[in-house]
Amino acid sequence: MSRLEEKTLKTEKIFDGRIIRLQVEEVELPNGQLSKREVVKHPGAVAILALTDEGKMVMVEQYRKALEKTIIEIPAGKLEGNEDPLQCAKRELEEETGYGCDEIEWLISFYTSPGFADEIVHLYMAKGLHVIENSANLDEDEFVNLKEVTVQEAVQLIGEQKIYDAKTAYAVQYMQLKEALQEK
């Protein structure tokens, strides 16, 4: 089958919230049949692999209601309006950790759950961390504990299912590959 696109015939908005929108789309499939797709619309997000001068990764421990558990993650947050992802990454790093950085670079962008959502995460690496006096605070409904972990400790946390999200696992894998290449 050469044509794989699905043509949207009708969109019904189901929910419009603070973070996501849910809609049901009636689509024409490549074979001409009709089907429905439930789609979550998301403004996009950033995640920051923040490295201390000692090479440790700065992470946040926080409770995630959707999982009903506390997990450890790299700092992250959603884009506000038409916010530039780089500016969002700097803002989220400051808000969640109290750190600014001398250097920040984009690593990669990826979709989190393309089967039903359009959320894209832009992953950045921040170096040259420094504490910002009177830094921006967490959102009023955010509570986190800061952690600094080595790559080996992060791998252990993945095994213990304390690191349990894709963006953080992706960042840890990036660091593992980086270390392996440096050893050669």
Automatic annotation (TrEMBL):
Gene Ontology cellular component terms for the protein in this record: cytosol
SUPFAM superfamilies found in the cross-reference section: Nudix (SSF55811)
Organism: Cytobacillus kochii
Gene3D superfamilies, per the entry: Nucleoside Triphosphate Pyrophosphohydrolase
Molecular-function annotations in GO: hydrolase activity
Single GO BP term: ribose phosphate metabolic process
Domain Nudix hydrolase: 40-171
Cofactor or coenzyme needed: Mg(2+)
The keyword Hydrolase appears for this protein: yes
Protein keywords: Hydrolase
Classification via InterPro entries: NUDIX_hydrolase-like_dom_sf, NUDIX_hydrolase_CS, NUDIX_hydrolase_dom
Identification of the protein by name: ADP-ribose pyrophosphatase
Pfam families: NUDIX
The keyword ATP-binding belongs to this UniProt entry's keyword annotation: no
